Amino acid sequence: MAKSRAEAPASNPTKKILLVLGGLVGLIVLIALVSKALGGKEEGVEVETAQAQVRSITQTVTASGQVRPEVEVAISSDVSGEIVFLGVEEGDYVERGQLLVRVQPDFYVAQREQAEAGVLSARAEAARAEADIERARVEQRRAQAELERVRALVERGAVGRAELEAAQAAAENADAAVTIAQANARAAEYRVQSARASAQQAGQQLARTSIYAPMSGTVSQLNVELGERVVGTAQMSGTEIMRIAELDRMQLEVDVNENDVVNIELADSARIEIDAYPDRPLRGSVTQIANSARVSGLGTQDQVTNFPVEVKILAASDVDEGATQAAVLADEERPAPERGPVLRPGMSGTVDIYTRTVPNAVVVPIQAVTVRDFNEIRRRQAREQGGEDADSLAAAVPEEEDLRRVVFVVEEGKAVMREVETGIQDETHIEIIRGVGAGDTVVTGPFRLLRTELNDGDVVRTRDGAPGR
User: Fold this and answer.
1) Given CA atoms 116, 121, 126, 128 in this order, what sign does their dihedral have?
2) Which of 130, 193, 395, 443 is most buried, with most CB under 10 Å away?
């Protein structure tokens, strides 16, 4: 017990020393944190920057679609029956007028023979009608002669009026018989014409059992086999048998959004990438822009309105990633490739359509351009000025938004907001028509800071630690 009391006074100074040291360490840490905070505030917010450049810029419209032949003909059957001859296979090249398919003709041969027999029968009826006309005319002449004889006798008083009236009635009946015979002859001639038309139609139906190539090209699609039955009608297309296409003349059919199609014009040049040939870009030219839209998701929130655009594939090229419209058009300066990639209908691809080029334009990265509500800025400035009228001045600013495009330019370590007028843009840069000059240092990020937090006059520094200039 005596020993414990002797050691107790010695432990008290040790505790005091430890407490003092701990307090000093805490004070040092606190001073360091405050110093760092104050120093960071003086240096400003960290931003990403880039310089405005002067260069050529090309506006592009990008869309995806599928490869299609420029000319593709669907061949259907006009008659029904069994295929008894199939002279091609898918992928075969055919010449115009070449026999492709023959449908069983027996039924149509019988129809034609029946129709031809009907023509002969109608002609025989027409001949009998002509003979009836001749007989009626003979009877007409006899009745007329009898009437003249009876009139002469009546004038001499040899016969009475009754005989004259009988002769007149006979003459009138003979005239009517001629008229009826002539009408029957005309009806018989009409029946001949109808029979001839039926025979001609039967002959056409028989001819349609043999299907010939309407153009030279490649059989791009074959839908039937030998022995298969096909259906055909005269009013509408029957079974689609095959398709013939000119595979050396291909195009890319793409859907372009309604907001972009207004920038596209006929003959605009394009750069095409086929998914199957990612390293072999092709040149193209816009040949058709649809007037009618394709609407998907009609009446829903996902409704999309696109317009089909056809881009003719010209040839393989060595277009690089930074190709411009001028580079694509300068085909004469490149040697023509010996053989382009083999394109097949249905292949997927993407096209960059060069709609407009501006040389010597002042451009900045797209992300440097942001939007600010100028009415909100006016309200904030009114409140920051203070004074008794601050609230009333802020309330006098209109409530509606006054959105304008701005760029923050770094000047003497501060972000200066400038309203800008923009022009065309490509995938990475946008043209500045007014508000920024070549060589100006513009703020490009971070996105959240640039979008909502950065204000006019804020102190900034670049990521390398140097203050903005």
Assistant:
1) positive
2) 443
Q: Is residue 129 part of a domain?
A: yes
Same domain, 200 and 213: no
Torsion, CA 225, CA 228, CA 234, CA 236, rounded to 10: -60
Is the pTM here over 0.70, yes or no? no
Q: Are 88 and 125 members of one domain?
A: no
pLDDT tier at 340, thresholds 50, 70, 90: low
Q: Which amino acid is at 380?
A: R
DSSP E strands, 228-268: 229-230, 240-245, 250-257
Tokens 């009391």 locate to 5
* Domain presence at residue 8: no
| Domain count of the fold of the chain | 4
Query: Does residue 361 surpass a pLDDT of 90?
Result: yes
Range(s) of the domain holding residue 328: 60-67+251-356
Closest CA to 263 of 303, 302, 309: 309
pLDDT at 323: 47
Residue 143, pLDDT score: 87
Q: Shortest CA distance to 49 belongs to which of 392, 426, 454? A: 454
Gap between the Cα atoms of 345 and 251, Å rounded: 9
Q: Which residues of 347-378 are buried (b: 16+ CB within 10 A; e: fewer)?
A: bebbbbbbbebbeebbbbbebbbbebeeeebb
pLDDT higher than 80, residue 30 = no
Looking at the structure, tell me whether residues 268 and 313 fall in a common domain: yes
Query: Distances in Å between the alpha carbon of 275 and those of 314, 344, 347, 348, 351?
Result: 17, 12, 7, 6, 11
52-110 tens-digit pLDDT? 999 999 999 999 999 999 999 999 988 899 999 999 999 999 999 999 999 999 999 99
